[in-house]
Amino acid sequence: MSQEGRPRILYVEDDPASAALVERVLTVEGYEVVVVADGVTALEVSRRVRPALILMDINIGGMDGYEVTTRLRSMEETRHMPIVAVTAATLRGDRERALIAGCDGYIPKPIDVDTFPEQVRAFLGGLREEVESPEEKAEYLAEYSRRLVEHLEEKIRELQEAHAELHRIDRMKTDFVILAGHELRTPLTAIYGYTQILLSNPDIPGPADEVGSPRFILQKMAEATKRLSQVVEDILNVSLIDANKLDLAMGPVILDPLVRSVVRNITGLGPDRKLTFEIEGTEDLPPMVGDSQRLYQALWNVISNAAKYTPDGGTIRISGRVVEQTVHLTVRDTGIGIDLEDQERIFDRFYVLEDTALHRSSKTAFKGGGLGLGLTVARGLIEAHGGRIWVESEGRDEERLPGSTFHILLPLPQQNADDQPPPADPLEGGQPLSQEQEGQPQ
What is the reported pTM? Predict the structure, then answer.
């Protein structure tokens, strides 16, 4: 029932003229009529408004009336609602097919405006039609089952074809981005290189901090070119990761100088934000095998992200330790935090937490802008090394500043049996046994 006490009727009809006619006839009779034009919407609306009666056009697009009715009968909220087919399907057997699908009655179109309200009242009052003959019921039930299977097969085939086409288009897009990235890197490298040559020339007049001087202009050109190169590199890396074409130049990597280099470059990139960077435990980490340039980029993306969402005066603590055969790096900040529902999404491509209308290009400013690719690239690079990354945070609060902690796990090389230390003697406080002690009875 509606709030006004009028019986609410849901009419599923994709023909505007038929919908307007039925709505006008039933509204005059004191009913509240809700009209929807497709089956998926009908399923959603019927659960929400709980109509006293559903009038179902059989020949609607997408999910047809048979399928919508069958689905309504399978849902707990709607299984007992009376459903009446109102349809132009008036051939022999159409009524029986509607009843087999789950309809409680059958009204052919075009409706008779004089008798239609009485028919609706009868179904609201409990009238239910059935297929009289058990043999016919079994026959139409088998036919309906075959029809559902055929329709399902057809839809699966359409989905497979659509998926194949989307995969082809996505592959073309990825290949284009990879080629475009390589094409863009060549002129950008040349521009940046020649700018650096000019900056190294002592004859270029003016200090670098004097606005408008030739040296100042060249310095800004170099910074802009480097920034553009980083954007191109992020886009290219995402495409390479998606295409599983990321090449790693594997070799020995010592993480401590890598972390310190990242922090040094972040703090020197922009205006002083008065952020405190603390590094602990990384100097004790053993060497690992990886691509130092790729790992630098992953760490830069994670640590710069922490700086971006930490207000001025905050602290970012980077720590490292060994857990079994794994390096565990944590990047903990005193920033605004991340909502629970966003803690997995932030690693998705192009996912940006801030309002894009407020986008700023700065990579170091508080809540500065970006393409939403930094953490995506970081995860791809870390996973390419056999590791994983995740984040923990109590939630987002710009007043309380709960902060966030990013966890990075990177595998260490497996030790050979010959490299293992000798077993410890529990009677000697865990000290290794000497060769003489190994041979003595205990």
Answer: 0.57
